Amino acid sequence: MRLTLILSALLASLNAMQLHAQTAAENPVVVELFTSQGCSSCPPADALLQQLAEQRGVIALALHVDYWDYLGWRDEFARAAFSHRQSQYAQTWRQRTVYTPQIVIQGGNYMAGNRPDRVMREISEAQRRAPMAMIEATRQGARASVLITPLEGARPAAVFLVRYTPEITVDIESGDNAGRKVTYVNIVRDWNLAAEWDGRGPLTLSLDALGNENWVVIVQADGTGPILAAAVLD
Question: Which CATH superfamily is domain 27-233 in?
Fold first, then answer.
């Protein structure tokens, strides 16, 4: 009897683990890291993003901001649009300032990017929450078809198409990180609005001109509100 109970407990635990893995794969958590090559406290956060990018159920994205460029080293990946997105987040949260490294999880929780314990805890909590939309995507070469279906809690949202580069190593020659060699992963190149969704019925998108590059679809309320769903186009 005791052995039967132990085996039953083990099977229940394995089933729970399998269910969690399936949920994580079907409901990936988006992690945005606002970073800069000119920020001396950013390399540990960049390294953390490398680890997150390898985790199942996590879509890790690096958005390089341009407000560090004046210190003597221009970040080749920085875009004013990403600095603006970070400022829009601050407005949404009624915060007066922005900082790097800053991590935003699923469009709602934000924290210092060099606090791995808290980051991992928030990701785990986000993975346990039910998605508010479902994305079904198929891609063939430079074309993709995306179907977005509302689930419980869905609301009007922006549909973003995000282009990223998987990995580049940079030798930083000047500025606060002079002499460092830093590997950056999932470097966002463009963050474009693909459609507006009313959140009430299915939305189908036909995307082309994707080339052989890497893309993510993100459905986000209010542009900088909660992320309802996300999917990698592969």
Answer: Glutaredoxin (3.40.30.10)
